[in-house]
Amino acid sequence: QAKERVRWLEGGKQREKRSRGCSLYTARHALFPRRWLNLQEYQSKKLMQESGVAVQRFYVADTASEALEAAKRLNAKEIVLKAQILAGGRGKGVFDSGLKGGVHLTKDPAVVGELANKMLGFNLTTKQTPKDGVKVKTVMVAEALDISRETYFAILMDRSCNGPVMVGSPQGGMDIEEVAASSPELIFKEVIDIFQGVRDDQALGMAANLGFKGPLQRQAADQIKRLYDLFLKVDATQVEVNPLGETPEGQVVCFDAKINFDDNAEFRQKAVFAMDDMTESDPTEMEAAKWDLKYIGLDGNIACFVNGAGLAMATCDIIDLHGGKPANFLDLGGGVKERQVYEAFKLLTADPKVEAILVNIFGGIVNCAIIANGITKACRELELKVPLVVRLEGKTPLHHLVLYVCTHFANMVCRSGHVSCF
Hints:
Elements: H1 2-10, H2 12-18, H3 24-29, H4 41-50, E1 58-61, H5 64-74, E2 79-83, E3 94-95, E4 103-106, H6 109-119, E5 123-125, E6 134-135, E7 139-143, E8 149-158, E9 163-169, H7 176-182, E10 188-191, H8 200-209, H9 215-233, E11 236-246, E12 252-254, E13 257-261, H10 270-273, H11 283-290, E14 294-297, E15 302-306, H12 309-321, E16 328-331, H13 338-349, E17 356-362, H14 368-382, E18 388-393, H15 399-413, E19 419-421
Parallel strand pairs: 15-17, 17-18, 18-19
Antiparallel strand pairs: 1-7, 2-4, 2-7, 3-5, 5-6, 8-9, 8-11, 9-10, 11-12, 11-13, 14-16
Domain ATP-grasp: 45-91
Main location: mitochondrion
Subunit structure: Heterodimer of an alpha and a beta subunit. The beta subunit determines specificity for GTP.
């Protein structure tokens, strides 16, 4: 799964070349940010609420007593209690307290307090969490609404369309890729003019395609325009609502949403990025991000130290082809500094699974002298104990001298004695 994540991250250009027009495939995956801004469900709902998008009434609680008080304050016919973690599959998850399910419905506010007491402070394990689960620190207490019909709606940034595109389907509440595969005629796409925005006729047309009729069509069109306002307001690359539902009382409500943000806009979205929940992020990936390194841990034992995403993926593939298993994906990128090289080595050597390190550097986009000096410093100070293979190639000044220095120092300080430079 981690390797597939790497390919999605770095394969955007190849996918764009293969695409023709605004396909659903490219619409959902054409643009990924440099890293992930992780917002909890209640935070996304709050952003939507602030933009006038219709969502369920909700409160957030950090203690069981707060959850009970929130349930009473809602004064709703039925209440839904949701554990707030970033992983999916919460409804079928299991707590180490013994409670089954991270999502519960009840009509009794007192039950909310009892359930919250078995959620907060306990680990919830789902199909997407680590085997030990994730500790729940917050729960969302929301008004439960009946849904008479579910639809799918999203606004996504699509490079092949040179801007945003609306994607909708009258079949919501399920995996949209399955709908696209089984019933492609039920997928509707509409390119948005970035200068004009969503026109009234476009919004009404999409609402009709989603199956809204009469007064609900106008109501759904209004929600679509508000969602586009949110899309622009927060510099999103994707706003996906699944389901965009219709209630028996005649309301159009956004029941669940996923928002992706453009990390390049962090400088003007400080309030949004300040909500970033990194408590569930991989500590190694977080440390790598501090040094502007693209790192993803894998399951193998051969650490990869490469510059350039394409070369990094090719290195992983070559290792796999010859019977080895890469321990990580690590892209130094261009313009790397000596300190980054040193910190990258610290990350690699801290992994207990690593039994060897392969350095594969192309000098066309980075100075090999910087890499060699960083490796030399790392070998001296970190007391490298695993075999190290270094490949530096490129027309960098003093290239051969640097190789000699790197080999000399590495052989001096590597206790394993297994060092190769070529």
